[in-house]
Amino acid sequence: MRYATCLFSVLLLAPVLAAQDSRNVTEPVIPPACATLDASLTRAGKTLAPEDEQRLDTKRIQDAMDHCGKGKGVVLRAHGAADAFLSGPLELRAGVALVVDKGVTLFESRDAALFAVSPGSCGLANAPGRGCKPLISAQHVSGASIMGDGVIDGRGGEKLLGRDVSPWDLAEQARPDGRQQVSRILVADYADNFTLYRITLRNSPNFHVTYNHGDGFTVWGLKIDTPKRLARNTDGVDPGGGSKNITITHSYIRTGDDNVAIKGGTGGLTQMTVSHNHFYWGHGMSIGSETNGGVSKIRVFDLSLDGPDNGIRIKSNGSRGGLTHDVLYDDVCVRNSPNPITFDTGYSAAGTLKGDLPPTMKDVTLHDIRVSGGGKFSFNGYAKQYRIEAYLDGVWVTDDAEYKYSVNHADLRLGPGAVNLKLPAGDDSTSSRFGGGTGAAKSCADKFVEFPAVE
Question: Which of 169, 192, 215, 257 is an active site residue?
Answer without folding.
Answer: 257
